[in-house]
Amino acid sequence: MVFEIEERDLAGRTGVLKTRRGEVETPCLMPVINPVKNLISPRELKEKFRFKMIITNAYLILKHFGKDAPDVHSLTGFEGAIMTDSGAYQLLIYGGVETSPQEIVEFQEKIGSDIGVILDTPTGGFASRADAERTVEETIRRAKTSFRLRKDPTMLWAGPIQGGKYLDLIRKSAKEMGKMDFHTHPLGSPVQIMEGYDYTTLVDMIVTAKRNLPPNRPLHLFGAGHPMMLALAVALGCDLFDSAAYALFAKDDRYLTTRGTFRLERLSELPCSCPVCSQHDQKDLLEMPKLEREEALARHNLYATAAEMRAIRQALREGGLWELVEARCRTHPRLYEGFKRLGKYAKYLEENDPVVGKGVRGVFIYDRLSLRRPEVLRHRHRVVENYARPPGKDIGVFIPNPQERPFVKSKEYQEARAILEGSPSHICFYGEPFGVVPSELSETFPLSQYEYTPGSGINIVAEIRRFIDANAYRKVYIVDPSESIFLKGTITLESITQLRGQLDENLA
Ligand SMILES: [Zn+2]
User: In angstroms, what is the span from residue 259 Cα to ligand 1's centroid?
Assistant: First the structure.
């Protein structure tokens, strides 16, 4: 097993990718380094920033050092796992490369890359349908021939998924590449989609790839690494990221944060606690010589990115990824559109989300969108489709959710129970945000571990109706002090105390 999944939250997971240079914890971001010259040395990336894996470009190594290039670890001075790209990006940008699919596969083995990439043909974000089809076919063909060239069984190989924004082509590409013996799958073309802030399409692309790949293969979102979008991508199931953004943005005096990108001259403070921002203010940075400033900004950008990856892994382990995604996606309306798109994939998220809560923290419900989160949907489906009331208890008694939790510890429940003792009654609670909660389930996650803002928009009457219809009660009492629930065939009471008289009258 090259990849072991550990914990899950939504469709995201933490895991361990086993490379021949040690285990790499995922989700993981690999800084992109230039094989020849870097602002920050790869050694420092490991020692100071604690990046476990980096990515560099085998094609550039081949061009610069020729066929007899040294081992990529001695070349870069990085002792951890190194992934190499194949030159496909150069193929996309310049339209051609001076190598062949065969040569670059053999070359990556020779220089000791830990994860290699075949020379695929990238689709790009702007490709026509015909071009996209051609790149998918050609990448599959090259993937098949690459197996004959692979000699070292300890090296891992990445099989890229193409198709650009054409979801049916991504589906085909993921299905075909997933059948072959690859260890990770990069999803191509997200960069141009993200540059256009088209996060809705990005969400569609990721989910399509995930649904058609074997679940135990890590998905690598090629070229993605802005701290503001990483949480969303992880929630959808991306495990690996690589990014040159830290260096490219620094060159352009841009400062990365989870709230977006800022131009240095427009900042009046440095809103960050990394070593760079703690030791300098914005004015110091602006007064530095260009190269020194570029390096300082690249360092800040790396610290900010590494910190966000830690925040994401922590949130995932405690079951709080939804809240983190929700907060991050509010940094930009287009990113929020991507978050709203999760509603379309509620079933996908629910299938992947763990059924048993981690119990570290409760579920936060803010509004209608929060009602689409797996914990809420799962309860609302199950209580109608997979639930049966306790046998023999055919009098339904519905009381509003008490303040106290778990609900069965409340004085309202105790009072109702005392009155109903000896009768074949089944007490259920109703209200936001879960609809109907049968008393015997009220202590299970997350039915007593949640916080919510009233007004989340759930239709209580419809929820009770569905529940009653599914459970065939002989009689139904609804305690409704607000007198807002009218349901045919049920008896409404103003208070729990009134239950006594009703029972005497109807059940004696
Ligand atoms: Zn900083």
Answer: 13
C-alpha–C-alpha distance, residues 459 and 434, integer Å: 10
Residues in the chain: 508
**How many whole angstroms separate alpha carbon 387 and alpha carbon 471?**
8
CATH code for the domain in which residue 442 is found: 3.40.50.10630
CA 445 to CA 362: how far, in whole Å?
8
**Is the domain of 321 the same as that of 381?**
no
Give the chain's domain count.
2
| Distance from Cα 304 to the centre of ligand 1, integer Å | 6
Which residue range is the domain that position 374 belongs to? 363-507
Does the annotation count 85 as an active-site position?
yes
pLDDT (average), residues 48-63 = 95
Q: Is the peptide bond before 406 cis (omega within 30 degrees of 0)?
A: yes
473 is a domain residue = yes
Q: Does one domain contain both 216 and 291?
A: yes
Q: Which amino acid is at 406?
A: P
| Two structure tokens written together for 344 | 């379309």
Q: CA dist 464 to 366, 432, 460, 490, Å? A: 22, 12, 6, 11
Residue 205 alpha carbon to ligand 1 centre in Å: 32
Same domain, 176 and 266: yes
pLDDT at position 508, please?
46
Catalytic residue (choose from 9, 85, 198, 480): 85
Same domain, 435 and 286: no
| Strand pairing category for 450-452 and 363-365 | parallel
* pLDDT tens digits, one per residue of 153-192: 999 999 999 999 999 999 999 999 999 999 999 998 888 8
CB 437 within 8 A of CB 413: no
pLDDT by residue (tens digit) across 465-476? Answer: 999 999 999 999
pTM, 2 dp: 0.93
Beta bridge partners of 8: 13
The CA-atom distances, in angstroms, between 132 and each of 139, 198, 327 are 11, 18, 35
Q: What residue type is assigned to position 307 of the chain? A: A
Q: How much of the chain exceeds pLDDT 70, in percent?
A: 98
pLDDT > 60? residue 444: yes
Angle between helices 333-340 and 321-329 (to 10 degrees): 140
Cβ pair 350, 377 in contact under 8 A: yes
Task: Give residue 296 CA to ligand 1 midpoint distance, Å.
Answer: 9
CB-based contacts of 410, cutoff 8 Å, min separation 6: 402, 403, 404
More confident: 106 or 96: 106
Residue 352 lies in a domain: no
Contacts of residue 294, defined as CB under 8 A and 6 or more positions apart, other chains included, come to 39, 250, 251
Round to whole Å and give the CA distance between 314 and 325.
13
Do both 157 and 49 map to the same domain?
A: yes
Among 155-164, 378-387, 405-414, which is the least confidently predicted range? 378-387
Cα 226 to averaged position of ligand 1 atoms, centre (Å): 14
